[in-house]
Amino acid sequence: MEKAKEAFLGIGIRHPFRISPSTGKTSMIEGVDNIKQSIRAILSTKPGERLYHSDFGIDLSDLLFENTDEGTLKEMEERISEGLMKYQSMIIVDSVDFEVKSSEGLVNIQIEFTIRSTNTRANYVYPYYIQEANQF
């Protein structure tokens, strides 16, 4: 993607926060990477966690210990699509698919999206852990 188009997609502070070794300034992120970082923030934040934006985020926590059947995945898909439409207006969600790895307690959420301003397609995979990682 051209540098001008990348800048048009926005510039933000890279998370986790760090100082750029080459400039000594706050490390920034732009373009598609900025959008992907935003998607991760939306999926990782439960409503009520942000002090001045208490409705921000997507709450999947009540589905955490549900069976990963078709009904649960459909509910997750609807919440994710609606949340991204609400909080990331730069994209159109084309599809939300799931790769269930029950033995690992993991659901990989695969989001295909189109960037509105450039009509460019991209994807993001978010690992959602449905069980505690250390069940020994």
Give a quick rundown of the structure.
The protein is an alpha+beta fold and 136 residues long. The chain has three helices and five strands, in the order H-E-E-H-H-E-E-E.
Commentary on this structure:
By secondary structure, the protein is an alpha+beta fold. It has one domain (3-129): Nuclear Transport Factor 2, Chain: A. It contains three helices and five strands; from the N terminus they run H-E-E-H-H-E-E-E. The strands form two sheets. It has a three-stranded antiparallel sheet with strand order 3-4-5, with helices on one face. Strand 4 and strand 5 form a beta hairpin. The model has no long low-confidence stretch (mean pLDDT 86).
List keywords for this structure.
136 residues; alpha+beta; Nuclear Transport Factor 2, Chain: A; three-stranded antiparallel beta sheet; two-stranded antiparallel ribbon
> What structural class is derived from the secondary structure elements?
alpha+beta
Got a strand count?
5
Give the neighbour order of strands across the main sheet.
3-4-5
Uncertain regions: pLDDT < 50 for 5+ in a row?
none
The CATH architecture is Roll
Overall residue-averaged pLDDT value? 86
**What global shape is seen?**
globular
SSE topology sketch:
Elements lengths: L2 H6 L2 E3 L14 E3 H14 L25 H18 L3 E11 L4 E10 L4 E10 L7
Antiparallel strand pairs: 1-2, 3-4, 4-5
